[in-house]
Amino acid sequence: MIGSRSGSTLQRRLLIGAVAVLIPVLAGCEAGNNAPTLEFHPAANGAYDTAASISVIDAFILGGPDDTPLAPGSSASMFLTVYNGASSADKLVSAAAPGTAGSVQLTGGSLTIPAQASTDLAGPVPKVVLQDLTSALPSGHTVPVVLTFQNAGVMTLSVPVEAQSAYYSSYSPPPPSASPGKGAKPGASGAATPSATPSAKASPTP
């Protein structure tokens, strides 16, 4: 019995010793150049969704600088990447942000998404613009945006509003809309307007 107990105790000690040796080896492997912790990538903040063969990746709306809300009546840029996994091209034919913007403008009226390819709608000049915001739009909120594709159909996203700072500081707000000069009347030009009073005729010399 004593010999049996001694053998059992020795086996336990050997097992504990082997584990103690393996722990730093395993830890060293995990801390190597291929360690999972070194391969960590933070998730993007944008919205993602898929409809049929179309995938929208990292969609976001650019807010004001330093968390300043965008004013009612102003415009906001929207950026996104679209992947088309189909064997034929598709088109983003329209967009809407109900309850947030009066309309959403697409550059050129529609945006073609080639087959088996990604289209990066990231600017620098925005290709998707929310116009005539119905109320102040602060950063940190989400906006329901409806995208309609010619073949893939309708996709609805909850798109976050990101402040124009840090990572997003390089993105551009919409260009200012052209408006007539202060005090100018519609249709007025810089050319001089002829007088409405007819000029006096020279009297003939007798």
Write up this protein.
- The chain is an alpha+beta fold and 206 residues long.
- It has 2 domains: 9-39; 47-170, PCu(A)C copper chaperone (Immunoglobulin-like), CATH 2.60.40.1890.
- It has one helix at 2-30; strands at residues 47-51, 54-62, 76-84, 90-96, 101-106, 111-113, 117-121, 128-133, 142-149, 153-162.
- Strands 1, 2, 3, 4, 5, 6, 7, 8, 9 and 10 form a 10-stranded mixed β-sheet that branches.
- The longest helix has 29 residues, at 2-30.
- It is globular and about 45 Å long.
Q: How much β-strand is present in the residues?
A: 25-35%
What fraction, in percent, of the residue positions are helical?
Answer: 10-25%
Main CATH class of the largest domain: Mainly Beta
Number of domains: 2
CATH topology of the largest domain: Immunoglobulin-like
**Which regions have little confidence, pLDDT < 50, spanning 5+ residues?**
14-43, 178-206
Distance between the termini: 158 Å
Could you tell me the radius of gyration in angstroms?
33 Å
Q: Give the CATH H-level superfamily of the largest domain.
A: PCu(A)C copper chaperone
Structural class: alpha+beta
Q: Count up the helices.
A: 1
Helix and strand string, N-terminal first?
A: HEEEEEEEEEE
* Global outline: globular
By CATH, the architecture of the largest domain is named: Sandwich
